[in-house]
């Protein structure tokens, strides 16, 4: 196992160096000079003029693109404008915290935020790779003899994720992946076939910690809410459990865990409500979303500033973006539907209840990525699915199972014949996307 971790770390370093070299060699800012204008304010006469400092600034300037401009600005001076609340509160707070311990932060604070973002992205991405490797060993979806190979391939696929350079830049995808994977791992450590009345201290603690991780992930990206769907497995298990004091305690713990996930979304909304709808600034002009039944600044900003809504993105001009996202949508939906059937590879589950419990459990793990794909297809900017899908573990594991044992893992032929094409597509897309991103060119 340690040999696998070392090999994954070496593969990670190689891939990151390649993408960073592509970014550094990109021709320039493209049509948008926002990064140059923003970081120009961070220049200081006292800044270091060493070659290393110069190279670092040039590289980080190629990574501060699109949403990263907002992330580092908000982290440096807080939320000022309404539309900035679309970017994850948890991520910007962590950026601000990490930047304070970076040498030279007082001299060039915006650069410090950018450096902090790059550090967080790399550390969180590597952590995600290791967590995903460990997660495979706790899921009942393949033959035990194949788990080590599947774990290694799945973790490798995560290294080469279609998020590409977004997992190196000051973006929230890496941190979200780490927290979401950790939440799934903690939840997977609870025996899926265990009735609720048998939950002991270890299982209850795992439930609470998984809820905390999912809640933190939701402060980073709002789609962390989807991870709460895994608790539907406990609802199913309730019908196969005796009602006693331990069962009631378990239900309460499940409720607390779900509440932590929900609070990850509601807490930033509450702070925004206090500022725009209750605070001194609300006296002059009350924003329209303040009077809604559910006064969510996030949904208002998405709708008002980015035209997010059901079928609003379905325009002729956006057809190329749908075509760009179509492969990932196919992967998310097909692997999500296929995942429950992989339990047939597991040995010793020949009883009807084991079949039911495992099918329901794996289905609940796969539901978040299916819901993400459906919402991307119908509601929000579809092209971003290529980077936000990186935070969902099941599709990596199913593809890895297909690569390791295609004839056995995919008897229905839904994904098996295409896994090699998908892997090559991931590599090509990430390399091309890296050059385009660093040059401030879409897709973003």
Automatic annotation (TrEMBL):
Its EC number is 2.4.1.-. Pathway: Glycolipid biosynthesis; glycosylphosphatidylinositol-anchor biosynthesis. The keyword Membrane applies. Keywords: Endoplasmic reticulum, Glycosyltransferase, GPI-anchor biosynthesis, Membrane, Signal, Transferase, Transmembrane, Transmembrane helix. It is found in: Endoplasmic reticulum membrane. Residues 1-25 form the signal peptide. One of its GO terms (molecular function) is GPI mannosyltransferase activity. It is a multi-pass membrane protein. Coiled coil: none annotated. The chain crosses the membrane at residues 114-138, 150-169, 248-267, 319-339, 360-380, 392-409, 421-440. GO terms for cellular component: endoplasmic reticulum membrane; mannosyltransferase complex. GO terms for biological process: GPI anchor biosynthetic process. Belongs to the PIGV family. Mannosyltransferase involved in glycosylphosphatidylinositol-anchor biosynthesis. This is GPI mannosyltransferase 2. It comes from Aureobasidium pullulans EXF-150.
